[in-house]
Amino acid sequence: FVHTTFDFLLVANKQEPHTEKSKKQEEFLEELKKKNIAITPIDHEDKIFLGLRAPNEIFDDYLYLIKVSDACNWCKDENTITQANRIRIVHFILNNTLISTKENLEKLKMEGVFETMFCLHEKKEQKNLRAKWARWSALFTPQPFDEIKCYFGEKVALYYLWLNWYTILLIPAAILGSVIFLYGLAFFNTSPLIKEVCDSNVTMCPSCDRVCEPRQLSETCTYAKVSHLFDNEGTVAFAMFMAIWATAFLEFWQRHRARYASKWKVYDWCEEELMVIIGITHALVVFRVMTASWFSRTESDFLEEKASMLAMLLGAVLHYFTIQIMTRVNRWVSLKLCDLEKLNSLAAKERSFTVKMFTFQFFTLFSSLFYVAFFLGRINGHPTNYVRLAGFRLEECHPSGCLTDLFIQMAVIMLLKQTVNNIFELLVPWAMNFLRRKTARRLKRQCGKCYRKFCRNKQGLIDACEICKKRDWLRNYHLGNTDAFSLFNEFLEMVIQFSFTTTFVAAFPLAPLLALLNNIIEIRLDAIKMVRYERRLLPRKTRDIGIWTKVLEVVGVFAVIINGLVIGISSDFIPRLVYRYHYGPCAKGINSTQSVMSPAQSSDIICMQGYINDTLSVAFMKTNIKDEYMLKTDDYAHVTQCSYRDYRNQDYSLTSQFWLILAIRFGFIILFEHVVVVCKFIAAWFVPENPVKVKNNRLIDKMERLRSELRLLYWNMLQSTVEAALAARRLPELNRDGRR
């Protein structure tokens, strides 16, 4: 194999002699030579490749500093320079080398003096990782975290450790979510609510003016069946489970991380070096309203019947593309805000950038979901007094509830985001790498002398010929670019997915299952991309996943609040509960023998009989529906009343039942959140962050370090005592020699 003997590769475009850029190039390289950095230049077409190699002697000055930095995690390995530490040290030297104009390498790259700088892949370790980890056939094999740490550094290793732990804990959530979905599916055809909708002869008011016609409630039978799949009694228990699961996940993750942080000796390591979104939400609402109206005007019966459903689907697709555009806008805005803060260290800049970027992305992703969950069908007004936006009536909820709209929105966004993103994430680097490696293939045919004796140096190590060096350097150069924020993109993608999985899970119980399936693929996809198609990431040392831990904790709190609001406000759980125990047949003392239904049917069926009609109010027209809604057809000229979803009297004032349900909704939200928060605190208290074994290992490490230092101090003192005694014995002899 061709051994990578260079720490970094510096690439620059060839410059005309005596130009300002060429002078700065020469000056910077001279500064590196003063620091004993060996430079090997190789020309290729219009570029010059500079292999940088630091001599082993240069690390003696830094070895003690590394040991001090890890003082609380001292171990014998710190007596030598590992490859990861070597790269970190050389990177520090290069970035802190200044020319006479006080410009560093970063500024020189911005000026075009140098094109790029990156560390090279090591072929032996790269091949080992490809065989064990970065391949699709290893989809269900354990990940080699220790080897990932040695090659990519602790920060990358902790990302995969966290992603692996997240994926494992998604298994119980995915199983329970699937059970909740199957529970709704089991009562698909026996639910009294579905039967009431499908057998109804109620005429519903038109959903829009001029073009939308009144429909029979029975025409929405399929929609009612879909709603029952996830808007049922099991949803409440599942939402509570997911809120507690989020806390348990974070607590167990801290314990899991502590074991590896202690093992890798980085436990105490510390490195200290919205109006646009509101406008987008408004635009999405207008788009859906106008789309529904446009579909209703078409001559196609299918498009006219499914106008609301198609508008919801197209709105979700538009929201996905808006997310992709705003991701780039949010990144640019976050970086500009970080530049304005003038932060002193990279760690501080990363923390600030992470908080800003996640905040922008969170509201970009969830703005449409918030509208569907908490505003759709609640601010649209009522007959004779509808609320209009840009001349169009706002959307209304389906008679079976608004949760189906939220389910469709989440399903489309999650499926599109996961599938399309993964396809592009793999295909784009693969295609770019395929197109760029033709040059390296041509050079491969020219090389055949790497293993001959005259290609070896005096230590017996393989020193590749110039053609092989060029081939290896070009292979690394043509890989995808990486920078300090490369890993940030992977973390952001997974934390956003975690937000989807926990926040609106009451409306989409299958979210954990989709996340689990995605993560199984995502782990190998990221591994293949990092090992095969991207330049080697700069190894960075860290003891945890940083600010992302705090972000996940905030998401966990939001999950409790949002799920409580979804169940209390968006779901029909509370109205069904109130009807069952206060307004329904069972509350009025009607038993199964008094009911028109057979005695063999369950009490649940009896108690919920008439619920759908109870949620509908009747609108009486001054003339008829045709004139009131400006319909073009004369088919409804004789119809003087229609029903709509709300709790209102004939004069459109709110009924006492509405206020009772509203009070119970708020009471349930407060109770739900308090119960879940108490459960979260209990779970956090029962699961300490640091296992006892980790604490004991840290104490043992400190004791070994103290013993080593005392032993060294003892031998130094003993050596000094012996030298002093020998000097004292020689002193009389010197005095006698002096008298002589």
TrEMBL record:
Q: How does it sit in the membrane?
A: Multi-pass membrane protein
Instruction: Tell me the compartments it is located in.
Output: Cell membrane; Membrane
Q: Which residues cross the membrane?
A: 165-186, 235-253, 274-295, 307-326, 358-379, 495-517, 545-569, 658-687
Q: Which UniProt keywords apply?
A: Cell membrane, Glycoprotein, Membrane, Transmembrane, Transmembrane helix
- All copies of the Anoctamin dimerisation domain together span 76-144
Protein family according to the UniProt entry: Belongs to the anoctamin family.
Among PANTHER family, the record links this protein to: ANOCTAMIN (PTHR12308), ANOCTAMIN-9 (PTHR12308:SF37)
Recorded protein name is Anoctamin
Q: Which organism is it from?
A: Gambusia affinis
